[in-house]
Amino acid sequence: MDNDVFQHHYPEDVSHCYGCGRLNDQGLHVQSRWDGEEAVATHVPDEKYTAVPGFVYGGLIASLIDCHGTGTASAAAYRMREREMGSEPPLRFVTGRLEVNYVAPTPMGVPLELRGTPTEVKEKKVVVDITMTAEGREVANGRVIAVLAPESMFSRSPKE
Amino acid sequence: MDNDVFQHHYPEDVSHCYGCGRLNDQGLHVQSRWDGEEAVATHVPDEKYTAVPGFVYGGLIASLIDCHGTGTASAAAYRMREREMGSEPPLRFVTGRLEVNYVAPTPMGVPLELRGTPTEVKEKKVVVDITMTAEGREVANGRVIAVLAPESMFSRSPKE
After folding, report:
1. Is the pLDDT of residue A154 over 90?
2. pLDDT bucket at A158, cuts 50 / 70 / 90
3. What's the whole-number average pLDDT of chain A?
4. What is the C-alpha separation between B130 and B88, in angstroms, rounded?
5. Is the pLDDT of residue B155 over 90?
6. With contacts defined as CB-CB under 8 Å, which chain A residues touch B159?
7. Of the candidates A1, A12, A21, B25, which lies 20 to 30 Å from A154 by C-alpha distance?
């Protein structure tokens, strides 16, 4: 496991997310890490995530932005508290609001790079602005308003 | 094929969408139809689309809202023109901007109902406001700003 990846620090019982859970074997496995003040993730979409032939499905793009956003929110929250990522109690964020602008058709078959900046970091709310590029060209951007997950979301006794 | 379903009228070469394409055998197959002035779609998420155990992944919710929105945009555009759905030239819409508010955790294992209202219908732009409920309770809402797909998106000679 790569300890630089935010999502690898999520507790086991909240690591089944289709977008970023390392324990979801059918999921997207979004992996985000710091690159200075920005968080970066790279993803090559599977061909089934087609919009029209040759182009990437917008719902997949929304999913990538969503999970890169909540991952970055979590990492920014640990950073603000000067705590080591993954230390207890967990700082896991969920999406309160997601906004995506589709700037240009996104070509299939090339790596998509997402770069996120935490533009507002409060105790229970983090806003992350994200730009997605394909071959250096902006194809989408978005904003994730992430809120600290309530303790009740953690079963602390996995159902499986 | 159910002719009331908007997506069943999409031309073959733009029916591979992961969210709503009838020709994508791994996709979600979102199916939208009129119920008076509203468009309605119902979907029961596969269990792989988990957020945390017991709850539906936000990226899937965004995908459902996205495809229900573009489908409704298409149907509203045909309706405005008093044209039969699916008649040539096709009026297929793509998403310019997607907004989703996650109102409450969405339970897994129950049908999700999406209801969309075209709140702005112009020649090349349709805005659709959507509410999603689970067991009668609002769990999410969103807005799709859909734009008429440019002719260049239609290959008119499918690649497969």
Report:
1. no
2. very low
3. 93
4. 27
5. no
6. 53-54
7. A1
Round to whole Å and give the CA distance between B114 and B61: 10
Distance CA A48, CA A136 (A): 23
| CA nearest neighbour of B132 among B105, B109, B155 | B105
Give the CATH number of domain B6-153: 3.10.129.10
Q: What is the pLDDT of residues B57-92, one digit of tens each?
A: 999 999 999 999 999 999 999 999 999 998 988 899
Angle formed at CA A143 by CA A11 and CA A150, multiple of 5 degrees: 35
Pairs of CB atoms within 8 A across A/B: 141
Residue B156: is its pLDDT beyond 80?
Answer: no
Unique residue bearing structure tokens 């602390």: A156
- Across the interface, whether the CB atoms of A63 and B63 are under 8 A apart is answered yes
Assigned CATH topology for domain A6-152 = Thiol Ester Dehydrase; Chain A (3.10.129)
Q: Quote the tokens at residue A155.
A: 């079963």
CA distance A82 to A76: 10
Distance from CA of B15 to the nearest CA of A (A): 7
Count helices and strands in chain A by DSSP H and E runs: 1, 6
Single out the residue of A112, A128, A101 nearest to residue A37, CA to CA.
A128
**Chain B residues 12-51 with a CB less than 8 Å from chain A:** 13-14, 16-19, 21, 24, 26-27, 48-51
Question: Which tokens go with B105?
Answer: 């955790």
